Amino acid sequence: MTRTLGTEALAAARRYESEIVRFLREIIAIPAESGREQARCERVKAEYEKLGLGGVRFDGIGSVVATVGDGPFVIMMDGHIDCVGVGDPKSWSYDPFKGKFEGGRVYGRGAVDELPAIACMAYGARLLAERGVPPGVRVVLVASVLEEDCDGYPLMHLIRDEGVRPDVVVLGEPTDLDVYRGHRGRMGIEVVTRGVSAHGAHCERGVNAVYKMAPIIADIEALNATLPVDDFLGKGTITVSYVDCKTPSFNAVPDECRIVLDRRLTAGETPEQALAQIRALPHADAAEARVLSWDGTTWTGVSAHQEQVFPTWVIPEAHPLVQGVADAAALVMGRQPSISRWVFSTNGVATMGRLGIPTVGFAPGREELAHTTNEWVAVEDLVKATAVYSLIPHELAKKLTADSSQPHQTPWRSRGAEVRRRTCDVTRWTFVVSC
Length: 435
Ligand SMILES: [Zn+2]
What we know:
The protein is α+β, with helices and mostly antiparallel strands. Helix content is 34%, strand content 23%.
């Protein structure tokens, strides 16, 4: 294929530039922390409908879903709709909910993480529909809720509970227009020590639970220095992220101390091993360690629950999904994108990490700006990303044709699953899903 298609796609996307920018600014201006996304979801649904996308609906937990094309090969394109809070508003030099537009950039909470994907995927789907969806292909667009609270949960719901069966997944987490193919996993772990309370004036009569925790905290700091490094994904890490204690009063010896640990798992580390490491710390004899659970409520009123285990995942660079998305990017940008990985976690922990569905990421915006008080995205990158999203189905369809000696779905998916098994054994936490 020549670059002509890429040039045409870019020109077509540019015709929608002002509408993409307007839509992005409007959704930035609607606050939507996890579980409180209703107004923004309704706005996105209205835009999908205006663009003429098919099957526009809310799923059972409130994510917005639409489809283009009706083939058996399903490409899911996901952008999460929720954002983290803004912290102290005074720490922002502009209103985070205004969708400030200046100097060719759009600013605000979500301007990187990851509302550009919502806007660009919607307009990319529109361009795709105008150009014609390749035979045999269907794109399922998802603007997913709750990602910031429990990454993976919304796609787990859509796939496991609602029967949407993607063959491949494209994530809209920021990649600065490169192609990302994995990231470290993560876990939330809590450690509790117990003591005996006593009056502060007779503290020698008590057993201070905080003092029992202190050497464990030092053990954890020492453990972090010993965790393995993977050349591609980076280092496994652990850090204390929260400390709390229970005490009858400020004049008493605390009888319980609790810490929470943020654990990042690199290639080759399993959740089971990570938990066992904590239980084996030199001073952990008297402590209890367990995986944290997450409980939330969706804006539609559904109770949500999941253990805080988010598996590591990597897909090989040679996988046709990685290559197809890279080809689409190269057609538009006239250069090969870098193939890299995220430092943070994404909904890929469900699609690739738990389910073995080949997953990759492509989006505008720089990951290191996510969750900061200076989130911005370049308008030029919005236009490019929109063009790339519109071409991804064509490039994947070409790869499928090249693979036509075999039924296409099995090899693509099993290649993903093979990798998942190698990089992370999550047997204790794996959901049973028959795709
Ligand atoms: Zn994100």
